[in-house]
Design goal:
Order of helices and strands: HHHEEEEHHEEEEEEEEEEEEEEEEEHHH
Oligomer: single chain
Strand content: 35-45%
Largest sheet: 11 strands, mixed
Length: 447
């Protein structure tokens, strides 16, 4: 048995011991779905490079560690003052904080939430109104991969966001996922953070939500999260996701979005941290005339592998997709992009375009980009493209001829490469944070 298979079997077999302590343990459907998820994990194991979707993303180094699902007690030592340097710069921002995947009310700021809007933790809702979660938690485990099954088996908390019909949440909402070592000492297992979050907007609702994955220390840990987005007819969501995990961390994040008729979904992704970071984005149109715009930027340096994978299902007519992803690879950094748009036979009048552009700043950087279209309808407008290249030597020469030193010239050109994705964001605290985070990372690795 391989190390990955052994790890999957160990996590699957260890559920029985931890099951009584997980949120909602006394709810039959919750318990039954967790058990099914553990069985699924044992059946499929963790993905490896023999699987086409993971061919360029080798995760074997993950199993150098045995991660322990973080109990809620590990957040006890985190104080409000520890978060000051991490907060968005708009005092109106609503903030829901999760530490090692567990909702931390004492660190959150939820005063003045509009009437009818629900912002809370999944564990709290399981104790109060579990029926609101039954359609979502673990409902589709039969097709899950190993990391999704691990999350479904062990996750006991996450963020719950519900905006009712016709309500506009006119203040930014920040979901802040913090990883802390929780006092883990040498010889103990590092921790796994396993949040499962839900963002639900009913018909005509509007919101602007950010999800930021950050660390307060440099200890190794596993971040294995799932966020589900459900938009009703005509709902609008602007969604920001920033992954800035510790250098020794492993980040596997999945986003599943389902869009009702006429819904508008815009998502901006920034990947900067982690030893291995993979973001999977799946969008499914459930109503006619919906649209989504997906943007992503990765900056990888020595020892990093950053991966974006997208799957967009055009299963309804007259839907529109725009995807634009970029990667900047420095040193021995590696990047992967796999993007697929499937246009089903009934999805006539689809309009879908996908592009991947990538910048290599050294001879040792690597990029694998695999844009893909599957079209089964005949009345469509679809296109895709990809580029991998280096800085333009003529542009570099022009800047140097104007007296700009080469390091500064290279920095300006690299910054310009990323600028169109940054400018696609709506002005506000989330954009300012992501711009600043990118600038700090570029400075730290001398890009």
């Amino acid at each position: 048995m391989s190390g990955m298979s052994q790890a999957a079997a160990a996590y699957s077999g260890g559920l029985a011991e931890q099951l009584p302590g997980l949120a909602g343990a006394g709810i039959p459907w919750v318990r039954e779905r967790r058990v099914r998820a553990a069985r699924r994990l044992a059946e499929v194991g963790f993905p490896d490079s023999r699987q086409e979707r993971w061919r360029h993303t080798n995760v074997e180094s993950l199993f150098e560690h045995r991660f322990e699902p973080a109990p809620a007690a590990t957040m006890a030592g985190t104080r409000p003052e520890d978060l000051v340097h991490l907060l968005l710069d708009d005092p109106r921002t609503l903030r829901l904080v999760l530490v090692n995947g567990h909702f931390a009310p004492a660190l959150s700021h939820l005063d003045g939430v509009p009437a009818g809007v629900t912002l809370t933790g999944i564990a709290q809702l399981l104790g109060q109104e579990p029926q609101r979660l039954e359609p979502y938690l673990g409902a589709e485990i039969g097709t899950a991969d190993g990391f999704t099954a691990l999350n479904a088996a062990y996750s006991g908390d996450g963020a719950f966001v519900h905006v009712p019909r016709g309500v506009r949440l006119d203040r930014p909402l920040d979901l802040l996922y913090l990883a802390v070592s929780g006092g883990v000492v040498e010889g103990q297992c590092p921790l796994a953070s396993l949040p499962h979050s839900l963002i639900l907007l009913e018909a005509g609702a509007e919101a602007q939500v950010s999800e930021r994955f950050l660390s307060l220390d440099d200890a190794p840990y596993l971040s294995d999260g799932l966020t589900q987005v459900q938009l009703g007819e005509g709902a609008r969501l602007c969604h920001y996701r920033c992954q800035q995990e510790a250098a020794q961390a492993y980040h596997f994040g999945r986003l599943q979005a389902r869009l009702g008729g006429g819904a508008r979904y815009e998502a901006h992704h920034l990947a900067l941290g982690a030893r291995i970071g993979r973001n999977e984005i799946a969008v499914e149109y459930q109503g006619e005339g919906a649209s989504c715009a997906l943007y992503g930027l990765a900056l990888a340096h020595d020892g990093q592998l950053l991966d974006f994978h997208t799957d967009v299902e055009h299963a309804m007519p007259a839907c529109t997709t725009r995807q634009r992803f970029k990667a900047i690879l420095a040193g021995r950094g590696r990047g992967v992009f796999g993007g697929c748009i499937r246009v089903h036979r009934q999805a006539q009048r689809s309009d879908a375009h996908l592009r991947s552009d990538n910048l290599l700043l050294s001879r040792n950087a690597e990029m694998d980009t695999l844009p893909q279209l599957e079209i089964h309808a005949d009345d469509v407008k679809c296109g895709h493209g990809a580029t991998v290249g280096q800085l333009d030597p003529l542009a570099l020469f022009y800047l140097r001829s104007r007296g700009i030193p080469e390091p500064q010239a290279r920095h300006l050109l690299t910054q310009g490469f990323a600028m169109d994705l940054l400018e696609a964001m709506e002005a506000g605290p989330q954009r300012r944070w992501m711009e600043a985070a990118l600038a700090r990372r570029m400075e730290a690795i001398h890009v």
